[in-house]
Design a protein that fits this description.
The complex is a heterodimer of chains A (248) and B (958). Chain A is of the alpha/beta class and 248 residues long. Chain A is built from 8 helices and 10 strands. Chain B is α+β, with helices and mostly antiparallel strands and 958 residues long. The chains are: A alpha/beta (248), B alpha+beta (958). Chains A and B meet through helix 6 and strand 8 of A and strand 27 and helix 23 of B.
Chain lengths: 248, 958
Amino acid sequence: VVLAAVDNSAAARAVLATAAAVADVMHAGVEAVHVRNDGDRTVTAAARAAGIPLRELEDPIPQSLVREVERRDISVLVVGARAVPVARHPAGHVALALITTLRRPLVVVPPEVRLPLRLRRALVPLDGTKATAAALDEVVELVCGSSVEVIVLHVFDETCLPRFADQPQYELDAWAREFLARYSRAGLKLEVRAGVPGEHVLQVAEAVDADLIVLGWAQDLSPGRARVVRAVLSRSRVPVLLVPCLSR
Amino acid sequence: VSLPAPLDRRFEAFVFDWDGTAVPDREADATDVRRRLEALCALGAEVAVVSGTNVVNVDGQLGARPSGPGRLYLCLNRGSEVFRVDADGPRLVYRRAATPAEDAVLTSAAEAAARRLAERGLRTEIVSARLNRRKIDLIPEPGWSDPPKARIAELLEAVEGRLVAAGLQGLREAAAIATEAAAEAGLAGASVTSDAKHLEIGLTDKSDSARWAFGELWRRGIAASLTLVAGDEMGPLGELPGSDSLLLVPEGNGSTAVSVGREPEGVPAGVIALTGGPTAFLALLDDQLERRRRREPPGLPEIPGWSLAVDGLDPELERAHETLLTLSDGVIGTTGSPLGRHPAATPGVVAIGVYEGEGADTALAPLPVWSELPFRLAPDARLRRALDLRTGILREELAQADGSLEALRFSSLARPGTATLRVVGNRSLLGRTRPSWEAAPTALVAENRTERDGRVALDRIAAYAPGVGAESARLKLEAARRDGYEALLAEHRATWAGRWENADVVVEGDPRLQNDIRFALFHLIGSVPDRGEAAVGARGLTGSGYRGHVFWDADVFVLPFFAATHPQSARAMLEYRLRRLGPARAAAKAGGRAGARFPWESAASGDDVTPQSARALTGQVMPVRTGLEEEHIVADVAWAAACYEAWTGDEAFARGPGRELLVETARYWASRVEVDGEGRGHIRGVIGPDEYHEHVDDNAFTNVMARWNLRRAAAAARREPTGVSQEEIDSWLRTAETLVDGYDPASGLYEQFAGFFELEPLVIADIAPHRPVSAEVLLGHERLHAAQVVKQADVLMLHHLVPDEVAEGSLEANLAFYEPRTAHGSSLSPGIHSALLARAERLEEAVEWLRLASRIDLDDLTATTASGLHVAAMGSVWHALAFGFAGLRPRGDVLELDPRLPPSWDALELRVAFRGSRVRLRVEPDAVTIVAEPAVRVALSGGEPVLAPPEGVRLAGV
């Protein structure tokens, strides 16, 4: 089951639409939950319009949400990043608490998402590490099995510069084939860029018209960490699927 | 027969004593031995019989007439003679002939020994009619005239009794007296041994036989660890070492030694005491015959410095691993993928010069794979693949829940295009193979399969005749099947060993580097055929990367190794260019030029197949201008021809096709150079080896190579003027004279191209987090074009390729300037810089770059090893060793060397072929030893040439 956690804000409609689209790809059911602490007129109307059953959870959040997700063995949780596009913080405290504590995939939905939403193209940035590849393996497999096109992105930055590039007309093909074989799936489309990863993720997502960005991460928001996740969460105009890299 | 564990395996060679080991005595009927030895040789085993007696005695008794493929040697006369025996009987292949002076000394030594023993009261007799030795009979009594081996203990007792009665302490003292007498007679280092009845003083002994045998086996591709040594007197005898213990020479370290004798005083450590005499020995041979008949795969030595093993299957690295394990024979290359199917594996076969597609899309054609087996590799499979670099054999061992197997495969260097697999394993794994199939019209496969107790033994032979025709493949397959697996194995092993005899490089003091160097040379050797034409693509036969297109990599980086070690292959590479002179002439004409313009990228047709655009690692789509502008390839082809001529002295080539290459390329340059109003010649709008800078004018490398090309062609045309007028020759020389080269005598620097010094002065060594680095990714293309950042040796390539064309003494200044500005973003760069740093005596840096160059694929530093090995970088490893550290340069009929031995190396040894002579050079800290057969003239460090003879010359003063 895909679970949408909605509040009584302008983001509710986008979160519900995203949850429905994700559930469609996964061939899963979709439900919504809501904690009544700020009224329910917007959220109730949005759920009704989306045709998604809405239940109320007891305070406090996010603890009640975490309990719900774990109790129901929810596959994917979908939450709103912030209430309105002009919010002062890229992600609200509920979203931040959930992404750092829940050990399962979670979609963060910006309020700017264009509706109606249908997932056609997912951008999967890979940093060329086994940990990220392993974290995203299941998701990529699932998405590859659907009608959604997967585009893999690798951004070279100063930590992972290629050492050699003999003839440009061949180097990328050979490199990309092996990169996909090692860290993803053969035959997928691969985009490469050089520079600041977070910037390029956003640019490429726009350039290829992606409607979902999939990021693996270590759920660590301490200073200096998760730069790509921070950048993408703050500026992405499409939903972001965060997958925890769990140590195995 | 229940055998001790060390004997429970197949051996490839047998070195054994004759009398007492194989036969009870010299009168015994040897029919049983003969039959077994002939059968073993027929099944590919190599046999060396060692005896102190002569060929009449041993051959008369043995009478074996094996017809191969395994060889039978008789190592006789106490190490002084070797005969090879085949269907026509024994033929002398080696004899140590004593000089008359040595003979006289031997006699006086024996007489002195006999005299001293007589003085002690012991009567002896000298038996003198023996090659290179004298025997002193310690018990010249009728009852002991020819004692059988079975009475050895009685004999020893009788001899010892006789010695003690004379007041001697025993055999040991008698031997000491003989040794002392020999030394006083002037025979230092004499071999004194005893078989109990005799004391023998000789120039040679059985250890010489053993050394010769192990040397010969090594030259046949058989390591000592695959050899069984057998004797009956391994243990001491009367306090003297047993005569067969002399078979245990250092060259045989790793072999398995067994004694079938009684060994009253035990056997030396490491020798298996089997006892049982000749009967036990025959049982050993029977066991070995049975193993071959049931197709037990041979063992494979993992010799330090000669092997590459991969344990398990790592899905992330598998494609790189199987590329490292590729088996190539000069015609086809097969990845070393596991035999069973696995999703991470990508088995593949490519053939040299066999392309598909058109234009820039022309690419090596994937051919059907011959080596796969019809089972799945289990996730928990225990898998080991080990490649023997010395013989090009890949062994695979697999154990998983549903069965196990052992397999050996090789692609025959002796008959390129023929590949074999021998596998023994459970029916569960090998249940559904096909007896014969047509993999393609020009690739055929046949199997020979037997099954016993659920274990399947399978021999598979594949024959590829790509580009030749189906009939050729059929004939190839038939011939291979007729000759059989063992013959194919023996000839393949021997061919590889033969190639190493002429190409090996030894670095003493750095075991890891040693192995890495051999890994590079192994894949070079496998990448090029030695007949017909050789289209050596950027990845050789190890993968389809770079679509198999032929670049300057082949002419400049790969060819010199072959010119200096196996000239036939270099000639085949030049033949590839020669056969494409037509398209090269057409390309020149189409561009409004004369002569021949070879393409930057070439495939089957000889037309340029360089793509027009590319997406770079930065993601940017870029126009590719190398096909239009990287014109130095024209001079590179000419340089390759000159390189071949210099090493081989092939006059027919020099006056014929080689001259044609030089003349046609010179004509191109003559028409390409623009002379300005001040009489200065320019080549505008080119790309040099530094491909970070496009469309530049007067690239120093291009201009100087063109100048060299014009001058070299003029010299060739003067020698053989047909078709070239004196006027044209003069015009080439005038044009060469006009060409600017960017050299500034004040600074000693060459400017890489006009305006290079005006670019942004970036020192990449200071700003990059590490080097090598792909600078276009670090800095971006636009910045790079405008900066003094160099991809690979450009100006410095001149100091490497044509040192006589650059200002004398200019290497150091240019190396100091350009190396820190070089990103080494080309895999061709580290090896060449290693060579240059060695020449400049910056030896620690030279070794570091060499190490890096030799690990480019082993460590997958490009992350593209999966699509093929960087054979040109492997060639550059040889460049560094031969041209850099050894300082080799052929000059006329003199081979110059000017070694630079790093302090961390104990010695550097190279083998090269120079003008028909096999030359072996050994560089040590204080001297160089050169052995040449036939003799050639060599010059050390600028000194006067001296003759290096077959017996070698040692020159001091490195």
